Amino acid sequence: MSGQMSTADFTSAGHDFSMEALDSSATPSAWYVAYTEPRQEPLALTNLRQQGFQAYLPLYKTLKKRATKPPVEAEAARQLIVHEPMFPRYMFFKPSSYRQSISTVRSTRGVSSIVRFGTQYALVQPDVVAAIQQQEQLRNDAALESIDALKPGRHVRIYEAGMEGLEGLVHSASSKRLIVLMEILGRQTRVKVNRASVEPI
What we know:
SH3 type barrels, single chain, alpha+beta, 3 helices, 2 domains, five-stranded antiparallel beta sheet, Alpha-Beta Plaits, four-stranded antiparallel beta sheet
């Protein structure tokens, strides 16, 4: 059913982010979960806030390559720091006061539905959201090297001239070069390549 989810969706950040059904004992500081339209999380976030709701979209910092064909001259020209939704299509919101109804959320642009378990709305407690925020901050503060996809042991494909399409494992990495372990004539060989001509697979 659209807009419904399991607790497994909230374990990817390393915590047991379990949810409970809303009942009469629910605290006013608890968060509801909105299920957004595909790739419309920022739109939903903006519109919920404009309606006076408190809204939170957890983001995950990562590195991505630009949409250019390798190789290029500089690695910096190929990498972008991006912040993507930690839980794609899911975000948290809550009324700013007891008097604010959540009935308008379902018709908010960017929102598909409010997550429920059966007939009851799902509820996420403040300590769970705080733990997610902490993970988000730790990721934002992390050095780029620690979130680099081209780490030792990573399986990669090479596009450098003369080795197009060959694959191997990253042995070591620097800011501009990689040492890749490759099988050549039945033997494992270390090959030095430009980072910009390699992509993880």
